[in-house]
Amino acid sequence: MKKYKYKARDKAGKSFSGEVEASNESVAARLVRDRGYILVDLKLASSGLLGLAGKMQGRVSGGDITAFTRQLATMINAGLPVTESLQILRLQAKTSMKVVVTQVLADVESGESLSKAFGKHAAVFSPTYIALVQAGETGGVLDKVLSRLADNLEKSQEFRGKVKGAMIYPAIIVVGMVVVSIIMVVFIMPRLTELYTQFDAELPLTTKVLTAVSDFMINFWYLVLLGLGGVYWAFRVYTKTRQGKRKLAELMFKIPILGDLQREVVLTELTRTLSLMVGSGVPILEGLAVTAGVVGNIIISEALQNASKQIEKGFPISYAFAQYPDAFPYILAQMVSVGEETGKMEEVLSKVSHVFEVDSEQKVKALTSAIEPIIMIVLGIGVAFLVVSVILPIYNLTTSL
Question: Which pTM value belongs to this model?
């Protein structure tokens, strides 16, 4: 959403000025005219720090979308028209979501379909979301599709919450280690170095290394920041390229435990989404194409695209999946084959999604169990290094006096 400043006058000729929020200039002009004013001037409002803060506050979270979908599904299931449901949700939504709902309502009231109105907000509603709503409108089962979509969003949010929650403790420990190391190197070591210099103490190798690192960071801190910034920028640029995305994905898949965990997390979302799309009447090829565009791993995305081409040629879905073992494990191809034979693809995909979810949760527990002793070992080595570097020279000084 953008803010536009306008100057206008009413029918009596009196001048007015103000601001209006809209997605583009033409919509902003229409909103001003709808107020009964004659538009004189319209321009984009400048945005400084307050504008940046407004953008941060105006972001629509996944929880907002999930709550909106559940409420909309409940109202439509109760027999309320779409426009009336959107009017009620507009009153209940918080500021960021209210702006989106207001525009969706205006588009629907002007005659557009709900899926097309959602499609104008690609940053809020994913292609999968829009495709499912469109399938529900086409099949006349929008209420059922929205209910299942809300269930899917709630399950996905709960699953991502479990994965993130399990990684909080290791992340806090690592951040703490980094902060303590920086404090030691930047603030404590320079004072100890002055003490060692005054007494002309013989320093062990570990102390010399730590002192050298401390001096470099203090005297050339700007080079450290520039170096870190340059590495981060180069990494971001490289990983935005197709080759960089593939290399990063291949590297992540090769990491013990973590690689399998990442693949199963992606496959959990993939199979759950496909199950929902198939059950909502979306053709399998369209479902694969939409899913390939939103899946967060290029290896699996390319495998889906290639599998779609083979399915178009007449090959079974299970056969197409089996050709890409790096992306799809054997159990997925096997279960899809069962779904093809029994005609229960939706149910089979839902069950295999549950299998991947359970495996992912077990791997998360195994990962956190493995990380904790590793962190303790690294922390112990770091503490031992600091003790030797700091305490040993002081001990040598006291014994020599």
Answer: 0.63
